[in-house]
Amino acid sequence: MQANILIVDDDPGLRELLVDYLGQNGLEARAVPDGTALWPALEAGPVDLLILDLMLPGDDGLELCGQLRAADAPWRTLPVIMLTARGEETDRIVGLELGADDYLPKPFNPRELLARIRGLLRRSRMPPARQDDPAGTAGERVRYRFAGWLLDPAAHTLAGPDGQVHTLGGADTRLLQALAARPGRPLSRDRIMDITRGRDASPYDRSIDVQVSRLRRLLGDDAREQRIIRTLRNEGYLMACDVERVA
């Protein structure tokens, strides 16, 4: 799997290690030390995935992730893996709230990072109609209409009842599509984690709950009523409303 990886980390030793390791495993990797250098690096060449350290001089990883996910940013759907300090759960949750697709606490094994990269790239490159949608076919553009909303996975957009179009990150798009493709059918957290990030959930991983909360806020879905996304105790989540597939 060939891909262009951009690393943003202020540790020169880690930058060198990751560039070498990813290069040895078939990926084109380059690295910059901070947010100031990030934007020219994005402009300079193709980037398929961004590895973003949380603790950076100047704008930190949270600020940069928020800027990337801004509606007018051309890189708003770029897959992002955030590197965080071990134990900084609040920062990890905020990073996911801002649209990071995955996170990895430091220190980490480079093999684990490589597995995360490959899983996220595989899902980001998969035709939307095939992303865990058993009724879809390769190349088919399928949209989902529910509760006045229209999800277009290929465009990473969600159009509201008022006509406003919201841009979604890759993980949010895949999660909402997975639920919309199976209305009334529960999806466990492990299954959702596999669909959105290509890995199993750890027992204390709250990232799926964070994603669902973010989507509920966007959809105006009261957590007490759960008209659209319903939580099933010890089972996971399901799409609770009717869904129409729109070709």
UniProtKB/TrEMBL annotation:
DNA-binding region, residues: 141-241
Domain of life, source organism: Bacteria
Protein name: Two component transcriptional regulator, winged helix family
Annotated PANTHER family: DNA-BINDING DUAL TRANSCRIPTIONAL REGULATOR OMPR, REGULATOR OF RPOS
Entry keywords, A to Z: DNA-binding, Phosphoprotein, Transcription, Transcription regulation, Two-component regulatory system
Residue ranges of every copy of the Response regulatory domain listed in the record: 4-121
Positions carrying 4-aspartylphosphate: 53
CDD domains, per database record: trans_reg_C
Pfam (any one): Response_reg
Keyword Lipid metabolism: no
GO MF terms, alphabetically ordered: phosphorelay response regulator activity; transcription cis-regulatory region binding
Biological process terms in GO annotation: regulation of DNA-templated transcription
Domain OmpR/PhoB-type per the UniProt entry, residue ranges: 141-241
Any one annotated GO CC term: protein-DNA complex
